[in-house]
Amino acid sequence: MAQKETTNIIIKLKEKGWTADEIIQFLTFIETHIPSEDEARKALEQ
Question: Cα–Cα distance between 26 and 41 in angstroms, integer?
């Protein structure tokens, strides 16, 4: 993820009241998680 994108995500999440720890966990998930096709389908159905 590009620095500009990361910074914009951090700004918006802080505006919504997220803590620094929550943001770090979220960004780590985005950067490292490789969803399966089934997992993605289930998430969209919820």
Answer: 20
